[in-house]
Structure formats: C-alpha cells, structure tokens
Specification:
By secondary structure, the chain is α/β, with parallel strands linked by helices. It contains seven helices and seven strands; from the N terminus they run βαβαβαβαβαβααβ. Belongs to the short-chain dehydrogenases/reductases (SDR) family.
Length: 252
C-alpha cells in the first residue's frame, strides 16, 4: 500500500459506515493508503477484521467495531471508539445503504421500512453522533452517500429507494446551512458502481432488471473512493457540496 503523505488526508481520523464491502471498503483502503486513521464499522465482524488486518499489514492505521446503523447508540459507540483510539474525529462517511427495488403495487412495506431505517435514519444517527464532537472541535466533515437516484427517480421499481436518497440530499443541504462555517458537508451521488447494493432486491423481475442494468453500466467502487478523497483533501475553507458521478455509458 502506498503510504505517501497527502495534504488534507494524512492523519485525519475518518469513520466509515458500511465499510465491510463495496464503496465503504474501497474508500477505507484508499484513505488508509493516504495516511488517514480509519474507524471502520459494519455488521460483519469477520469482514471488518480482515480489512483492518490488511490495512495494518500495508502500514496503515485502523480499528473496527460491529455496528447496526439503525441503532443510534451503535453510532454513538463508533464515534466514541474514534475518540478513544485517536483523540478526535475529523470525517464521518455515512455510507451504509440498502436498495430494494420493487413496484409499489407489491406493497413491500417491510422493505420500505428497512430502507428508511438504513438509508435515512442511519445517516441521521451518524450525524447526531458526530455533530457534538465536530461542534466542540470547531471542525469536521460530513460525507453522506446518496445516489444518482437522489437526482432522478429510479424507474421502474425504485420509487421508495429514490425517496430515501432524495432525503439524504435534502438532509445534507439543510445540515450545511445549519452548521457551515467550520463544519463541511458533502453529498456523493454515484451511479452504477460495483458493490453489494445491487443484490438488495427480493422481487424477482426487479432483481433481474437491476442485475442487467449493473452488468451494462457499473464501474469499480474506487471511482467513488477517489471522489471522497477529493472532497476531504480540499483546504479547510473549501467545501465540496455535491459530487454526482456516473459511468460514462450510463444514461440514467
């Protein structure tokens, strides 16, 4: 792993949710290679342990904790782990997400609830846990992962998923208005990116549609990792508010 120093990233303490795979894992590896100190959290302890082991073996610095983002106390514990391990928290990346695509006529209200709990409440709980620390430090950076589906409603079957991602975008913008000055807020809105997100649909026809869509369009997760790094490495007086990135071939 390349451990060269990157101004704006080196030595920053970064907490990443949903870090056991996909965008979160790729971002953790890239930021660690650029000198960040990582707190990686997700539900799968084995994947987190492996990630931290590999980061440390490559000369990086990381700790992990099992976290369910639908539980506010879990996010508070993750922020406390950052403080206990490194004495501060500079960036929180609210990345954990669920994409369950199905027509609304299927009335899969359990999936609606799950997406709201993970995609919206999970972001809010991350904000709630980190905000007091950022306010006390008079510095900090929220990076919230939305989606291109938060710019244009994903159709067919993505109505509720898009609703959650539009919400993330709105929450991020409102947060920026409320805490801007010393605290930065960035929304990343990716298109089709290689991750486990595409496996979240239990509705057969929708799952096949999503599978085909990703096969035709997806790009590697490190495309998002580089966008995150770009936002972090800016000088403190520069706040990258939104980054929308799509595969070149993706029309939607």
């Amino acid at each position: 792993m390349n451990t060269q120093q990157h101004q704006g990233i080196s030595q920053k303490v970064v907490l990443i949710t949903g870090a056991s795979s996909g965008l979160g894992e790729s971002t953790a590896r890239l930021l660690a290679s650029r000198g960040a100190k990582l707190v990686v959290v997700a539900r799968r302890a084995d994947r987190l342990a492996q990630l931290v082991s590999e980061i440390k073996a490559a000369g990086g610095d990381a700790v992990y904790q099992v976290v369910d983002v639908t539980k506010a106390e879990d996010l508070q514990a993750a922020v406390q782990l950052a403080l206990d391990s490194y004495g501060r928290l500079d960036v929180i990346i609210n990345n954990a997400g669920l994409m369950a695509i199905a027509p609304m006529s299927e009335r899969r209200t359990d999936e609606w609830d799950r997406m709201i709990d993970i995609n919206i409440k999970g972001v809010l709980y991350g904000i709630a846990a980190a905000l007091p620390v950022f306010e006390a430090q008079q510095s900090g950076h929220f990076i919230n992962i939305s989606s291109v589906a938060g710019v244009k409603v994903f159709s067919p079957g993505g109505t509720v998923y898009s609703g959650t991602k539009f919400a993330v975008r709105a929450i991020s913008e409102g947060l920026r208005h409320e805490v801007g000055g010393h605290i930065r807020t960035t929304t990343i809105l990716p298109g089709a990116v290689e991750s486990e997100l595409k496996h979240g649909s239990s509705h057969g026809a929708s799952a096949e549609f999503v599978k085909a869509f990703y096969q035709q369009n997806q790009i590697p997760a490190d495309a998002v990792a580089r966008a995150v790094a770009y936002a972090i490495e800016q000088p403190d007086n520069v706040d990258i508010n939104e980054i929308v990135l799509r595969p070149t071939v993706q029309e939607f």
